[in-house]
Amino acid sequence: MFRKSKPAEFITVPKLVGKYKQVRVTFLGASFMKPADGKPARYADDDFALYIMDEVFKRQSILTRVKGIISKAHHCRKCDADLMGRKAHKRRFALDISYKEMPPFKLEIEMPAIPCRSCGTNNAVNESNTEIIICGAIAKAFESLKSKL
Question: How many domains are contained in the chain?
């Protein structure tokens, strides 16, 4: 006889935090799939993590724009003003994310950022390893999902 496996259910995790180096990410109200067979909860599908990366780095980018080939200069992501010579301070960015049929949730990213003198926009410091560090913090948050359930 074949046993029918119970379908997985979506659960909402109020707060899921990950920290890697100088970056801290917090998922607020994100939904994850909890299999009925007792296996650990996981994200909705294989595209979920890639979608989060696209939101952070492309669609809702929080990073400074870097210009120049030999000498790199940071510019505001909103008004393109020069940010060189400004000090970075820890700032929090909040992104609203909607993925497929899941309820929308927030992703907060806390990291060093440079405020723009012209428009006041905070710009996350964009260095050669910044994307790797942000991805590491997101991975740590996903790892902590096991301890939440």
Answer: 1
